[in-house]
Amino acid sequence: MSFFLDDLWKCSQQKFYYKNTLFYEIFFDTRHIIEGKNGVYFCCEKNFNKAKNYINEAIEKNIIAIVSPFKIDIRTCPILIYSNPIKLLQKFAKKHLRKFKNLKKITIIGNNDKILIKEWLFNCLNDTYSVIHSPNNYNSQIGVPISVLETKKYHKIAIFQCAISSIKKMRRIENIIKPQIGILTNIDKNHLKNFSSKKKIILEICLLFKHVEKIFFYCNSQITLNFFKKKIKKKEIISIGTKKFCDVQFITFKKKIIHIKIHAKVYQFKVIVKKLENLFDLLIIIAVLYDLGFSQEQIQEKIFRLKSITISLEITRGIFNSMIINDKYSLNLISMKIAVNKLIYLSNNKKIIIIMDSFLDKDIHFNLYQDIIKFLNSTKLDYVFLIGNFRKKHKKIAFNRVLFLSSFKKLICNFNTVEIKNSSILIKGNQIFKLKKFINCIQYQVHNTILEIDVNSIFHNIKIFKKLLNSNTKIMAMIKANAYGIGSYELAKFLQYYKIDYLSVACPDEGVVLRKNGINIPIMVINYDYNSYDNMINYQLEPEIYNLKTFIFFLKKIKEKKHQKKYPIPIHIKINSGMHRLGFELKELDNLIKIIKKNILYIYIKSIFTHLVSTDNKKNHDFTLKQINNFEKGYKKITSQLHYKPFKHVLNTHGIINYGDYQFDMVRIGIGMYGYVSDKQIQKKLKNVITLKTKISQIFYLKKGESVGYNRMFITNKNIKIATIPIGYADGIFRKLGNGNFYVLINNKKIKIIGDICMDMMMIECKSIDYNDEEDVIIYGKNNSINNVAKLCKTIPYEILTSISSRVKRVFVEN
Ligand SMILES: *Cc1c(COP(=O)(O)O)cnc(C)c1O
Q1: H-type helices in 468-503, by residue range?
Q2: Ligand 1 atom with the shortest distance to the CA of 668
Q3: How far is the CA of 785 from the centre of ligand 1 (A)?
Q4: Ligand 1 mutation pick, 464, 478, 610, max ligand atoms within 8 A of CB
Q5: Integer CA distances (angstroms), 4 to 22, 39, 92, in order
Q6: What is the pLDDT of residues 653-699, one digit of tens each?
């Protein structure tokens, strides 16, 4: 995009004095501003002080103008005061879109899990037309206008998704887009949240489709459809569903062939989708493509390609300590910008980007590539590899570290010359099969057994706990022991990105790894010894001081380093209130205070805390209160001698649930963030974070009487089929789970583990289940939770999690 600042001001009906200044980006989130000199920051924060902080951050990043709801005195750049910046943006976007008279606009209305429909439709049309679409989940009040503003003259079709939300919000989106084609996915219970009845939603949607000429409606209820038709007159409605009355009707799905009746004629297509739900989504795509005039062969070709589309961002470790970010979203300018932003945020060293898309050799995308190259020029990347048939003109405008490669093979050859040590490599493109081959070359662990970590679920869980807290209570994320065995700096990077207040690790080494990987938020270290004091100080790790001896040594060390360090250094005082693990006894506090007072120039107390031993056991309720009482005494004693107030904190996960009155200034959340609690109500609200999965190595057909595994622990009593999977007790699977005590899941079906679990493998009885070796075998996940495993093994989820061996590859997934 490129716009004049004057136009933005004009849109707000205010006078503007800076003529002819162009801007190219709009930011809503200061984290997304990498280099602000081309952009305008729209501040949507409702709290004045927070808004001020964000605006200052934007100014520091050289933003060229600011739109703010508050009057703030700034001299460095123009500021436009507008009470609701989002509304201004929407107005601006609406005006922009009106410039394109010949653009065909499609709106998809449906909830978030319908993003796939949008991605599919985009992919089906994008090889024929130049299509703009709102990427990822840009279906909100901000996301839609931002996508709209990227519309260019060369776009022929626009696909924007609109989430079903409140009536007011949906109307505003309609008003911006004014689509000609509407796609309405199934109306389900989820949508009813904001509406009193199904009828009401439909009435509302009729209003939204005021300007539409044609509507595709997935609907299996004749009553609903008739009601809809009655209310929405003079528009063409194409109904899609499984029922006879539908214009596009699903008939059968067998052996990957789907039969569909379209206006009384039967068609068949070969498809590769597994879930029936996705099959119905596909039905909508076929209906739209058919209506746009594509032939059966063309449709077949297009939908067959969709098999490779998944929409997520995956992060794994590469060789030579590199980080691989595999972004599977479709390529367009906005998704490109989002991905590069992620790359810059997640990496702190060399940045490499590889772009490969399925349609890179088509003329239609000449302009898109040009725009992408222009954008890449403006970023500070070390290397860019573009694979496809580019034109001379593209090469001319690219900066010198852009390498144009004509084929995928050339990438592997050329890549050898790049020093990838410590680099972060963003791979963008949806040609999964070819890319997989390449990724395998640079991946650190190429192994079928992986621990997948859903980053969004972690933040969902943190949000659930935030709701139990006051808005100003700080959160310290406990990521000791490699984040409870989940990973290490990768998770910390995300936590930093989402602005968590504090991190805590067990030992200095863990902290050093975080610092070396670009984590700059405060880190508290729980335990350490004399040998690690240098590292503690050099890497700004904040020690938990738990006794006088270590404290005195620490002070000595920081004085030795006098010439290089800024004082005072933050420390945390731990009080032993009853656990008897680490911490000061109340009677030792007088001596502690003396030393603190003497060293006031060198250290300052950032926080004082204690650890509660039993926050999820009602039996110990009185003891817990006694612990808190002891702690408060200690806190008072120390602070009565200080002229400042350190943070005060005592609660862990179950403390937040059961002792919210004692949240004080901060809480320390561990296991809850990873999704496991003992409270049933809260557990229901949490999302599953980790999935441990693998693939089958071998299948056996056994006759009655044959045995499986070591010690012949399993002997068949009939002819059966078994499979071997490459995961064993060395990967952290407790042997107790063997011999029929636990199961794994394939296609959500329970399959028993049989015989003894071996070091690196185990066997499962697969009965009649039909599967191939591409199928995921889920060992722990949403439907076979670690909570159950822990109970079976008579332990706690913490032990199960931290037992998952480091040889299991970690994959972080963000949607
Ligand atoms: C591990 C730890 C926590 C977090 O405990 P959870 O039960 O996982 O929430 C909090 N505080 C301290 C001192 C810890 O060591």
Answers
A1: 480-485, 489-497
A2: 10
A3: 21
A4: 478
A5: 5, 11, 11
A6: 999 999 999 999 999 999 999 999 999 999 999 999 999 999 999 98
